[in-house]
Specification:
The chain is an alpha+beta fold. It contains five helices and eleven strands, in the order βββαββαβαββαββαβ.
Amino acid sequence: MNTQDTYKTIDRATEEILFKEKGSKFLGYAYPIRCEEEVKPLIETLRKVHPNARHHCYAFQIGAEKIYYRTNDDGEPNNTAGTPIYGQIQSFGLTNILVVVVRYFGGTKLGVGGLIAAYKTTAQATLDSCNIIEKTVDVSFLISFDYQNMNKAMRIIKEKKLEIVHQQMEIHPESELPIGKIEFKTRKKNAEIIFDIFNSHHEINIQIIE
């Protein structure tokens, strides 16, 4: 079983990073993201901030185990912008991150090699300015139990220092007795042990939340 359960990302959006090359200005930005749906609004915001910029190129990567990424050259020659930006995301070993480089054209063409170097340099400088943090890959569980077993469930949660995400009490539709439900999460490397602990208590039902 693969128990690698940490990944590196950034803790907050960066300040704007400026790089100049032959009159062109390249402005770098990095954002922590959790899903692709967050990308478009961030790009649209930058387009409003820089309405006269010619290109808003970017790359992002999401996921710790199943990796998903995309690059966008936004009108630059193929693979001269998004790809070198993504290369820096890989070089820094980061995920759950979006890096955008906004370009103001300065009148002098840089050529394919010049563009690749400029976007790479801007992305590298942007990521150098980031505060990189390590996070854990977590597994979420839902346990349910009759009310009289609440103390037993909470004792295990406290002993194993599990993080409660949500908890509620509801009435069983047939017995009309109270039922407790708790959603919690734990690091991936501990998930199998935690599952077995709860599963060994027949009064407590446990299931993984995908």
